[in-house]
Structures are given as structure tokens and as C-alpha cells.
Write a structure and sequence with these properties.
Blueprint (H helix, E strand, L loop, with lengths): L5 H15 L4 H26 L4 H4 L2 H21 L3 H13 L5 H28 L14 H18 L3 H22 L5 H17 L5 H13 L7 H32 L19
Helix pairs in contact: 1-5, 1-11, 2-4, 2-6, 2-10, 4-9, 5-6, 5-8, 5-11, 6-10, 7-10, 8-9, 8-11, 10-11
Length: about 280
């Protein structure tokens, strides 16, 4: 049984989105930096957990392990509190649909958050993944932990950067953020940490296991691969992936979550319950 019903969740989501646009730009950037770093931590542990698992033996189970480990990222974002662009792509536009903020507020917030997420992800990729030796390079012993991590990162990064058409990457971005935003949305139903973690786990595990593209996760995977010297991967491929995945993420959030639940629960609500639309400090996906 949930602590909030879906209509209450919609009101809380709109209130949360509005609050995100009231902070100063520097606080938004710091909050977004943390979220980018948290997603980087989730991506790094996902690589380590799934490294060295031969598909010939394990089949597709490594993708399941990758997804289960990657959930750490959104757990840190939502429970510790920070601003993740993919979650804001649902929360902030929903608040605009509710009439609480303007379209300009949406653009400004998403721009600042994407920038902060990028810096946070790059810091973890360069300093904590590659410079620490957790991720090795082409010269690392093949049977070492660093060597196995390098091979796994290579597989993930090359698949994302060059393994799909532009249309496929865009659609993978749509599917990814539909699920990510559902995780954020369902976390609004819970008022306990354990409830929020449970709400987050399955949608995030699912999108990673299916190979969908999350623009902030890719801000870690692809630069980390470049920093580690993965061949046949450049910044041009990386930027194109971010553009396509980010556009898909935006569509997945706005069309399939924000607009859908605005239409179902907020469109005909005159707003007399505005005073009850209180978001919790942890609801900052």
C-alpha cells in the first residue's frame, strides 16, 4: 500500500519541479555536479560487477548484474538529494504544465543541470575510474581486475558510440527515460527510504538490462573509455551519442510521463489543493 495515491504523486511532482527553479544558479550547478558524480559511481560499480563474465557461460545475465549494480546511482541521487537532468526532464516540465513556472524556467534549469551533471560525471570518469587504476588500459593484464574492467568498459562504450543507428540510439533514449522517470515518479509514493529504494530498483535495473541509453550515464561511460585509451572511439561519436540519447530522454520524460500524468490527474484539477502539494527534501531526481 502506497503512502500517496497517484493524484497526490502528481501534485507532489509538480511542486518539486517548481522548487527546483527557485534556487540560485550556483546551488543548481553544485547539486547537478553531485548527481553526475553519483551516476558515475553507479556506472563504475556496474562495470566492475559485470567484468569478466563470459556471455558464452553467463548468457545475458551480465546485463542483469550491470543493471542491478547501476541502481546505486539513482538511489544516491534521490535519497542523498541532488539534481539529475533525466529526472528534471519530467518534474520541471510537469510544473510548467501546471502553470507554476514558465517555459524559460524549464530551459534554464535543464541547461544548468546538464552542465553540472557533465562535470560531475567527467570528474568520476577521469580521477576515480581511470587515474585510480580501477579501470585499466590496453596494456593491463587480461586476467587482472583492471584489465577485465577495461574490456567491459570497451564493450559498453563501443556499443553505445558506434553499435547503433541514430534512430536506434534516439529510441533507446526514449525507453530509458520513460523508465527512469517512472522510478522517480514511483519514489514519490513512498515516505520511507526503503520504500523509495524499492521503487527505484526495478525500472532502473530494467532499462540498463535492455541496453537503453541514459545521457548522463553516457557522460561517464564514453569519456571514461576515451581517457582509458579505448580504440576507435572519439569525441565526435561521443557528442553525437549525447545529442541523440538526450533528445530521446527528453521525449521519454515529457511525452510519456509528464504529459500523460498531467492529463490524467492535473489537467482538470482547479488547484484548490495547492497547499497540500508539498515535496519532500529527498525528491530531487
Amino acid at each position: 500500500m502506497t503512502a500517496r495515491e497517484p493524484k497526490d504523486m502528481a501534485q507532489a511532482a509538480a511542486a518539486t519541479g517548481a522548487k527546483k527553479t527557485t534556487r540560485t544558479w550556483d546551488r543548481v550547478l553544485v547539486s547537478a555536479f553531485l548527481a553526475g558524480a553519483y551516476i558515475g559511481f553507479g556506472a563504475l560499480v556496474a562495470i566492475i560487477v559485470s567484468a569478466g563474465l563470459d556471455p558464452g557461460t553467463w548468457g545475458t545475465l551480465p546485463t542483469l548484474f550491470t543493471g542491478a549494480a547501476f541502481t546505486l546511482g539513482l538511489v544516491l541521487v534521490l535519497i542523498a538529494g541532488s539534481d539529475l537532468a533525466t529526472g528534471n526532464m519530467m518534474l520541471v516540465p510537469l510544473s510548467a504544465m501546471r502553470g507554476k513556472i514558465s517555459g524559460g524556467d524549464v530551459v534554464k534549469n535543464l541547461t544548468l543541470v546538464l552542465l553540472g551533471n557533465l562535470v560531475g560525471a567527467l570528474v568520476v570518469a577521469f580521477f576515480l575510474a581511470v587515474q585510480t587504476g580501477v579501470i585499466g588500459d590496453a596494456g593491463s593484464a587480461a586476467d587482472s581486475g583492471a584489465g577485465l574492467a577495461y574490456e567491459r568498459l570497451t564493450e559498453i562504450a563501443q556499443g553505445k558510440a558506434t553499435g547503433h543507428t541514430a534512430w536506434e540510439t534516439f529510441l533507446r533514449g526514449v525507453g530509458c527515460n520513460w523508465l527512469v522517470c517512472l522510478a522517480v515518479w514511483m519514489s514519490l509514493a513512498a515516505t520511507t527510504v526503503s520504500g523509495k529504494v524499492l521503487a527505484i530498483f526495478f525500472p532502473i535495473m530494467a532499462f540498463v538490462a535492455m541496453g537503453f541509453d541514459h545521457v548522463v550515464a553516457n557522460m561517464f561511460f564514453l569519456p571514461a573509455a576515451i581517457f582509458a585509451g579505448v580504440p576507435d572511439l572519439g569525441w565526435g561519436d561521443t557528442l553525437l551519442n549525447w545529442l541523440l540519447a538526450g533528445a530521446g530522454n527528453l521525449v521519454g520524460a515529457v511525452v510519456f510521463v509528464s504529459t500523460s500524468y498531467w492529463y490524467l490527474f492535473l489537467k482538470d484539477d482547479p488547484g484548490e489543493n495547492e497547499a497540500a502539494e508539498q515535496a519532500e527534501p529527498a525528491e530531487r531526481g
